[in-house]
Design a protein that fits this description.
By secondary structure, this protein is an alpha+beta fold. The protein is built from 5 helices and 14 strands. Strand 6 and strand 7 form a beta hairpin. It is elongated. The relative contact order is 0.12.
Length: 339
């Protein structure tokens, strides 16, 4: 069973539909996991996701990295090939995306300001930042009002204390946005410095890997595919969705076979006890480069064993019937035992 089938099976078992809005050029487009509306996405960034249980809205995610682009596209005439895994087929095969990897996924690390903006938005729009700023605002305002009354009043009684409280709340609310953006002004340089350092480290990684732009795209696609396969498997039964928030670092472990460790900031969306919630975490994932891998060809969701002709899964390394070794169809695959 391919990855997207695993996800659809999971969502259907819970009665959940995920509605995703994309900015694709000048247009805002929409795709739903229940296929009520599946726009063709050429090069889109995710704006938001809404989660519905039996057509009832339950949850929304609004923060996504604008460096990550997705494609769900099909051709109305003739054959086409998936930009990710090379799968070729007719338009009918691709109407819901590539039947094997389902999505083209990419990330651009050269645009540093986009990375800074992403972290900047996540910081200043978070509840923690807003609450912290409000507390700082009220504390500073309290001492300003208190100092003013102590230096201008001849006496200081209980009624004056009520003035301090009222003045703090009123002036604090008026000054909140001043403090909000003032704090952001000081936070942004440190975010930019941190992000540019990460970008430089990753440039060194790509240089050491001797990777072309196509190699980068294929690696990101394969990572995305492998993580979808992992989180929609039976070992993670409550997971209904996940998003890669950022790639924090890459490290080459060995060169025979070539293995890398990617530290990834990931957001997991779970359905538990009738509610939907998300969890964010930084995780290390080890990926191995296949010594040999095949391009997918043909228009059907079937791969035949070259020995006995039995149908095999795209992720199998050997035929389950005759045991014949099968070259992988993904260049990079997740080494789960070293996670």
């Amino acid at each position: 069973m391919v990855v997207e089938e695993l996800k659809e099976k999971r969502l259907n078992s819970f009665g959940i539909n995920i509605r995703t809005l994309f900015q694709d050029g000048e247009a805002v487009k929409e795709r739903n996991t229940n296929h009520t509306k599946d726009d063709n996405i050429e090069n889109g960034i995710i704006l938001e996701k809404e989660y519905y249980k039996d057509n009832k809205f339950l949850y929304k995610e609004k923060f996504f990295d604008s460096r990550m682009t997705f494609s769900y596209e099909f051709n109305h005439q003739g054959e086409m090939s998936c930009k990710n895994c090379g799968k070729t087929g007719t338009m009918d095969d691709f109407v819901n995306g590539c039947p094997y990897c389902h999505t083209a996924f990419n990330m651009e690390y050269q645009k540093k300001e986009l990375g800074s903006k992403h972290y900047y938005d996540l910081t200043i729009k978070s509840k923690k930042y807003i609450i912290t700023t409000l507390c700082i605002d009220l504390v500073v305002t309290f001492f300003i009002v208190l100092f003013y009354l102590l230096t201008t009043s001849r006496t200081f009684y209980f009624f004056d204390m009520m003035k301090v409280v009222a003045g703090t709340l009123l002036i604090g609310l008026l000054l909140f946005y001043v403090f909000y953006y003032l704090d952001a002004f000081f936070i942004l340089p440190s975010i930019r410095k941190k992000k540019e350092a990460i970008n430089e480290q990753q440039k060194e990684f790509w240089k050491e890997l001797n990777a072309t732009e196509d190699d980068k795209t294929r690696l990101f696609n394969n990572i995305h595919y492998a993580l979808r396969q992992y989180y929609y498997s039976d070992r993670e039964k409550s997971v209904i969705d996940f998003d890669i928030m950022d790639f924090n670092s890459f490290k080459i472990n060995s060169k025979s076979p070539l293995t890398i460790t990617a530290n990834i900031e990931i957001r997991i969306v779970k359905y538990e006890k009738g509610t939907i919630h998300s969890e964010k975490m930084d995780q290390d994932y080890c990926f191995v480069k296949a010594e040999k891998h095949e391009e997918l060809k043909g228009g059907a969701n079937i791969i035949d064993c070259p020995n006995c002709g039995a149908s095999i899964n795209v992720n199998d390394t050997e035929c389950s019937y005759c045991g014949t070794s099968i070259n992988r169809y993904q260049e990079w695959f997740l080494q789960e035992k070293e996670r």
